[in-house]
Amino acid sequence: MKTTINIDDLRRRARRRLPRVIFDYVDGGAEDEVTLRENIACFRRIGLVPRVLRGGEIDSSTLLFGQRLAVPVVVAPTGLNGLFWPEGDLCLARAAAGAGAGFALSTGSNASLEEVARHVDAPRWFQLYPWGGPDFSRRLLERAQASGYDAVVVTVDSLVPGNRERDRRHGFAHQVRMSPGIVLDGLLHPAWLASVWLRGGMPRMGNLADFLPAGATAGEMADFSRQQRNPAFDWSDLERIRAAWGGPLVLKGVLSAQDALRAREAGCDGVVVSNHGGRQLDGAVATIQALPEVAGAVGGSMTVLLDSGIRRGSDIAKALALGADAVMVGRAALYGLAADGERGAATALSILTEELRRTMRLLGCRTIAEITPDRVVPPPAAP
After folding, report:
1. What pairs with residue 104 in β-bridges?
2. Tens digit of pLDDT for each residue in 222-248?
3. CA-to-CA distance for 330 and 84, rounded, in angstroms?
4. Residues 84, 18, 354, CA angle at the centre, nearest 5°?
5. Beta strands at 47-48 and 376-377: parallel, antiparallel or unpaired
6. 248 domain residue, yes or no
7. Considering 170, 174, 189, 276, which one is annotated as catalytic?
8. Quick check: is 62 in a domain?
9. How far apart are the C-alpha atoms of 273 and 311, rounded to whole Å?
10. For residue 383, is it within any domain?
11. pLDDT digits (tens, 9 = 90+) for 160-211
12. Are strands 249-254 and 151-155 parallel, antiparallel or unpaired?
């Protein structure tokens, strides 16, 4: 890891260690992957406008829902992290705690929300996929409350699965379907094979055990998750979740000011400007392009976060300048996890933190509040 100096280095290490089917699962997007690429490219087209001779200590901390974070970063909710490293969810949660960042646990995690709560005493959010009927959400919300989760994030941009063609070519759908080619690829990646697959094969989805008979296999859990998709979920369902959850509620998957305003009417405390990392609707606007309109509509009255495309600390600064209160990082942390477990995830967060603080110094911004719109030349307006 001594030669690892940026997130792309971690991506290359992850690619070497993982079989193709697993790497494509974390790295890929929907269809032609236009949105996946644009999420990154649009950050590159934003110019930074530094102010000079502004000395003083750098303070990168911020408050999110009353909790102090050392850096305005939340590790995004991602599923099946046990495919990348044993106890992948715990590795990510511990790395986030060590970095002073937030952590959001996915409904599709391999560790249960209770297990993560037992092992990590730091800011924790629970991400709820609105699968199944009202009973599914109610039981998970009750468990999140009993386990002391600080906020709930409802993801609404994946009510039907995106057309992720890399996964389709491998036959991957929440589980690895073994074929001669995949078996051979696994044998060609012995470090991954020994650390993950030979320790128990396909990891189970820990949060779903409560909904299935005792001893349900990973395959049965994967089948259950696919059957529970709920494309009919609507604003009235979100209001039901609002009534059931007493803490901060965040809506993830917003790309328009109109939806952000509607989320505020429904009682949400925050939104995540997100296109699911380009994994759902290919051609959807890049999140950094959509951010200014959303932040202009609800910023100040709601917490606004952004995910998708964060690969540099300067990307975080650009998002903050354009109206985000903080960002979520998914792939950047997962590349670190897949490269070297908890240490790799911690390295990813350390790189982003160091880059952000350096960017703040060079911009002449001593605090997060000083990263204002005049410090950037905005990206082209969303079409």
Report:
1. 125
2. 888 888 888 999 999 999 999 999 999
3. 13
4. 65
5. antiparallel
6. yes
7. 276
8. yes
9. 16
10. no
11. 999 999 999 988 877 776 677 777 888 889 888 888 877 777 788 999 988 9
12. parallel
Write the CA distances from 186 to 129, 145, 172, integer angstroms. 30, 39, 14
CATH number for the domain spanning 155: value is 3.20.20.70
Task: State how far the Cα of 154 lies from the Cα of 240, in Å rounded to an integer.
Answer: 12
What DSSP assignment string belongs to 275-295?
A: -GGGTSSTTPPPHHHHHHHHH
Residue at token pair 């690619």: 15
DSSP characters over 147-197: TT--EEEEE-S-SS----HHHHHHT-SSS----HHHHHHHHT-HHHHHHTG
Count how many domains the chain has: 1
Comparing C-alpha atoms, which of 283, 282, 272 is closest to residue 327? 272
Alpha helical stretches, state H, 34-105 = 34-44, 88-99
Report the SS3 class of residue 305.
strand
The verdict on residue 334 lying in a domain is yes
- Residue 293 carries which side chain, given as an amino acid letter? E
**DSSP one-letter code for 129:** -
206, 109 contact by CB (below 8 A): yes
Per the annotation, the verdict on 189 as an active-site residue is no
